[in-house]
Amino acid sequence: MHGFGTRHTPASLGCPEARLKQIHSDIVRVVEKPIAPEDLRGDALVTSTPGLALTVVTADCLPVLLADPKRRVVAVVHAGWRGTLRRIVEKTVGVMRQRFGVDPANVVAAFGPSIQVCCYEVGEEVVQEFRSQFPYAEKLFQLETGENPADVYLPRQLGVERKAFMRNLETGKAHLNLVEANYRQLLDAGVRPGHIHRAAPCTSCNLDLLCSYRRQGPRSGRLISAIRLCP
Length: 231
Prior knowledge:
Layout: E1 2-4, E2 17-19, E3 28-30, E4 44-47, E5 53-58, E6 62-68, E7 73-79, H1 81-85, H2 88-100, E8 108-111, E9 121-122, H3 124-133, E10 141-143, H4 161-168, E11 174-176, H5 178-189, E12 196-197, H6 213-216, E13 223-227
Parallel strand pairs: 2-5, 3-4, 8-12
Antiparallel strand pairs: 1-13, 4-7, 5-13, 6-7, 6-8, 9-11, 10-11
Helix pairs in contact: 2-5
């Protein structure tokens, strides 16, 4: 059983639940019993315990639910840009493999509502961080004009793609595609493309149903995402 909440969803599920104190890290925890946020820090949970709901809360960051129906293992991930930079979703699949013998080819993934590339403006320092870690980093950003930085060139074709992108940052703004970044990490982890569901809406564009910290600030609500094994 799994689901992604809206701004109208209660904060508690009314069943045994494990939830972390989220810290924008790459820390993955394996749990077997209910956990309160004040008792454990991290940003991903894994369990094989039936009836235990794993939950995260978000307000622009990407919630990712993972399940292996053959080994009966589930996981939930809170992936902001910092966790994504540290490959938290890829590491979560790794923990599922190491602890429970999960074959990534059997894993099914679902992405919940998050801020999309249309609204997620970031600074040059974030671009540089991603470029230091991912060979495909240029594919994860778009300029505010809608251009992909990989398609932008300097006058007279004097620059390579990366230099062209940084030159355009002087007059344009870069937008990060969190969904694409985590999709590529799941592929690198061995999850099949057809097993990854990523059609959830943008939090920033849908404030009637969702919550966006970028749009609403500290007073924004939080969206709960949860998954559990049926007994």
